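Could you join me in thinking about how sequence relates to backbone shape in a protein? We need material for that, and I hope you will provide a protein of your own picking. Once you have written the record down, we can walk along the chain together:

…
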Amino acid sequence: MSLSRRSCLLAGAAAGVLPLLPDVAHAGAQIEEPLIDSVRNALSASIRSSAPPKPEFADTASRLAFLRWLGEMSERLKKKVPGHQERIEFLQTVWYESKRAGLDVSLVLGLIQVESNFRKFAVSSAGARGLMQVMPFWTRVIGDGDSSTLFRMQTNLRFGCVILRHYLDREAGDLFMTLGRYNGSRGRAPYPNAVFSNQRLWVFNDRRDDRG
C-alpha cells in the first residue's frame, strides 16, 4: 500500500469513517498458528452448531429492545446495503452470531466496516474472504475444508465471530491485542484504532432504557 493511500485510510478512520474501497479489501489477515487438540475441537464444535440465526428472548421487553436496535441499525446501514430484506437478514445474523460468541455487536459491526465495508464477496490481497475477511485456512483447520462457503453470510459471520472470540480469550480480554491478532498486525495501533473508531458509528443508545 502506498504511503498516500495509507495516510488517507488512517485519516478516515480517525474521523470515524472509511472511504468506499474497491472490490479488493484492504485489511490484513489472520496468521495460521498451531492449535492444541482441545482448542481445535472446541472451535470446530462452535462452527458446526446448526442453530438458526433467529434471536430468542426471555421476555417481551428484551424483544422490543432488539426490534428498536434493528430499526435503528437498518437506517444507519441503508446506504451500504440498500436492499431492505438483505439488511434485516444481515443484522439479525450479526446480532445472533455476536451474542452467541459473547461479543459486543457494535464491535463486530465496526470490524466488518473496516474489513470489507459490508461487501459479502470482498477478497483481500492476502486471500481473506467475505464480510469479516476470514482466511481460507480456517475452513481446513476447524471446518469442512470448503473455503467457498466463506462467501455465505452466516458462515462468514460464524467463522469471524468464533475466531475473534478465540483471539480475545488468547489475549485475556485485551481488545487492542485481539484486534491486532485478527488483522495479523498484533501490537500495532492503526488497525485496532480504525475498528474502535468505526465501532462508535454502531453503538446503540436505547432512550427507553435511559428513562429507566
In short: The chain is about 55% helix and 0% strand. Residues 1-23 have pLDDT under 50 and may be disordered.
